[in-house]
Automatic annotation (TrEMBL):
Gene3D superfamilies assigned to the protein according to its UniProt record, in alphabetical order: 2.40.50.580, 3.40.1350.60
MF term (GO), any: DNA binding
The encoding gene: sfsA
Record Pfam families: SfsA, SfsA_N
Native organism taxonomy: Bacteria, Pseudomonadati, Thermodesulfobacteriota, Thermodesulfobacteria, Thermodesulfobacteriales
Assigned protein family: Belongs to the SfsA family.
Protein known as: Sugar fermentation stimulation protein homolog
Domain of life according to the entry: Bacteria
Length: 240
């Protein structure tokens, strides 16, 4: 287990509704606001077992409120005894922390280039070792679990499929390629593509593994009141 210093929430609240994919209405506890406030939802997934009315949530004040329509960001949702991170804008920061620590970096030291372009897509990182070898890395966040099985995606993802196709193509060209799945469900003990939701993505992930693309499901637990993100290990990958 590795502990990473992480963000502290600015407020707690109660989720009321989600009018659209990027907007939620929340009642802030102990705040000056008299009624519900609109908050930005960074995660474009459906979050079917998380965004349920009356569910407790954590919020963070927007860092650039004058440039935003909303003054708050949705950070995490309480599920049973755990807090589940639902802010996809933090994924790259988390991946950088994992890459910077010797116990969580599966590749070894390398220079990092963020958002390298590949074809029609931008991937999250291009890692270049001192030897000159390269690994193209994509990062995804997983917020859904059924029992002890973490599942991705929770909605069809053409963008995610496109990223996998690029990684497969890179591997076929002799480049290194990998994908991090950041699993924010501490109860999970296994990870799998959610075939019922997106069979095409499941097929592509299976093809990617057969081509040698590295798949790393990191089990992570957010402890907001301590400002800590715990790394609990890599989950076994289940391909179906």
């Amino acid at each position: 287990m590795v502990k990473f210093p992480f963000i502290l929430p600015d407020a707690t609240g109660v989720f009321l509704e989600r009018p659209n994919r990027f907007l939620a209405r929340v009642k802030i506890r102990g705040g000056k606001e008299k009624g519900p406030v609109e908050v930005h939802v960074h995660d474009p997934g459906r979050l079917p077992d998380l965004l349920i009315p009356e569910r407790e949530v954590l919020l963070r004040r927007a860092r650039n409120p004058r440039l935003r329509k909303t003054a708050w960001d949705l950070i995490a949702v309480r599920k049973n005894d755990h807090w589940v991170l639902v802010h996809s804008g933090l994924h790259r920061q988390i991946a950088e922390m994992l890459l910077a620590h010797s116990l969580t970096n599966p590749f070894g030291p390398a220079e990092r280039l963020a958002e390298p372009r590949r074809g029609r897509h931008r991937l999250d990182f291009l890692l270049t070792a001192e030897t000159g070898s390269r690994i193209w890395l994509e990062v995804k966040g997983c917020t859904l679990a059924r029992g002890d099985l973490a599942l991705f995606p929770d909605a069809p993802t053409a963008r995610g499929a496109g990223h996998l196709r690029e990684l497969i193509s890179l591997k076929e060209e002799g480049e290194g390629a990998a994908v991090f799945f950041l699993v924010f469900r501490p109860e999970a003990r296994r990870f799998a593509p959610y075939r019922e939701v997106d069979p095409h993505f499941a097929d592509l992930l299976k093809e990617a593994v057969s081509c040698g693309v590295g798949v790393y499901p990191f089990l992570l637990e957010y402890q907001p009141h301590e400002g800590i993100l715990l790394y609990r290990g890599l989950l076994p990958l289940v391909l179906c």
